From TrEMBL:
Matching PANTHER family: UDP-GALACTOPYRANOSE MUTASE
Keyword Repeat on entry: no
Family assignment from sequence similarity: Belongs to the UDP-galactopyranose/dTDP-fucopyranose mutase family.
Protein name according to UniProt: UDP-galactopyranose mutase
Enzyme class: isomerase
Gene name of the record: glf
Domain UDP-galactopyranose mutase C-terminal, first and last residues per copy: 133-332
Length: 368
């Protein structure tokens, strides 16, 4: 948004509470191994949106990258997402696609007609064995609650394929920036009219100093948490540096209780066009987000929706403020969706400015 509005002639100030730009996408070279590290965990760019793909490519080279995830459960290694190879390996079969589909249908719990919870969704479509091997324990580690407490919508993002395609994503465009995400954001901000303030959180009390504020921090923080803190999960990373190749791929999920961490990510595999003798891995642990932690994933349970509605109602009474992004709208957003919404929000602002109408608090409905 800063890039688009500055190009339209506006003076824009960007406030960043951290010591660096690019937010959770921030990447930098590790001093010991020279590996490009995704400091706040891996970000893999994937989209079907032509406009978004062209936009990000205008700031840096996006090299082809295919995310191929492995999963360890009960002492065996499998491929994710669940596909024909996973099914045949797990059950010791040699199914063809139609046979595998029929077999999985036979395992599903037909008594669950309208899945409401994560557990319902899994049992209905993949059956108890695959659910317990790949989803149940991993979900407890990731979300800190039982799958029976989570909405079915979470599992709808995890496909089952009846072919041998092990590409984790199915989008037309997939890639990684050749020189990391931070360089791309640097170029976005390298426009006359943009001033960046690092180590500076924006104080809502300063709102009147600006013609408009786009707030991408936590919506509950803007209002001093007056309706309570919206719940998030956060991540802790245990870093391992070693020589050679630690696990042979970028991402390995640990789906059972053999380890406390949810997954290991080996960062040099996110840049397969580079060669490194050393390696760097993140052992990833998920837990409830506390006051001083970095929020990652909004939990969005039913009671959170009621709490969020209260904040939305208050926010809609604000003037000259628009709430944007994952934290500002309390939604889980991938990078391509975030960029698309940012471009649309900038366009909406210019449209409102030209017509001298008030910019809404939300361009995208957080409950939509």
């Amino acid at each position: 948004m800063a890039n688009q509005l500055a190009k339209a002639g506006y003076q824009v100030e960007v406030f960043e509470s951290r010591s660096h730009i690019a937010g959770n996408c921030h990447s930098e070279r590790d001093k010991e191994t020279n590996v490009m590290v995704h400091v706040y965990g891996p970000h893999i760019f994937h989209t079907d949106n032509e406009r978004v793909w062209q936009f990000i490519n205008s700031f840096g080279e996006m090299k082809p990258y295919t995310n191929r995830v492995k999963a360890i459960t009960n002492g065996r290694v499998f491929t994710l997402p669940i596909n024909l190879l996973t099914i045949n390996q797990f059950f010791g079969k040699t199914f063809r696609p139609a046979e595998a589909q029929q077999f999985l249908t036979s395992l599903g719990d037909k008594t669950i007609e309208n899945p409401v919870t994560f557990e319902d969704q899994a049992l209905r479509f993949v059956g108890r064995e695959l659910y317990e091997a790949f989803f149940k324990t991993y979900t407890v580690k990731q979300w800190g609650m039982q799958p029976s407490e989570l909405p079915a919508s979470i599992l709808k993002r995890l496909p089952v394929r009846f072919n041998y395609d092990d590409n984790y994503f199915s989008h037309k465009y997939q890639g990684m920036p050749a020189n990391g995400y931070t360089e791309i954001v640097e170029k976005m901000l390298d426009v006359p009219g943009i001033t960046v303030h690092l180590n500076t959180a924006f104080d809502p009390a300063l709102k009147s100093d600006y013609s408009h504020v786009f707030y991408s921090g936590p919506i509950d923080a803007w209002f001093g948490h007056q309706e309570g803190r919206l719940p998030y999960r956060t991540l802790d990373f245990e870093v391992l540096r070693d020589q050679g190749d630690y696990q042979g791929t970028a991402v390995v999920n640990y789906c059972d209780n053999s380890q406390r961490y949810t997954r290991i990510t080996e960062h040099k595999h996110f840049s397969p066009w580079e060669q490194h003798e050393g390696t760097l891995c993140y052992f990833e642990y998920s837990r409830q987000c506390e006051e001083k932690d970095t929020p990652y994933y909004p939990i969005r349970m039913a009671n959170d929706k009621i709490q969020l509605e209260k904040y939305i109602n208050i926010a809609e009474q604000e003037t000259n403020v628009t709430f944007v992004g994952r934290l500002g709208t309390y939604r889980y957003l991938d990078m391509d969706v975030t960029i698309d919404e940012a471009l649309k929000t900038a366009e909406k602002f210019l449209e409102c400015a030209n017509s001298k109408t008030q910019m809404p608090a939300f361009v995208i409905n957080p409950l939509g």
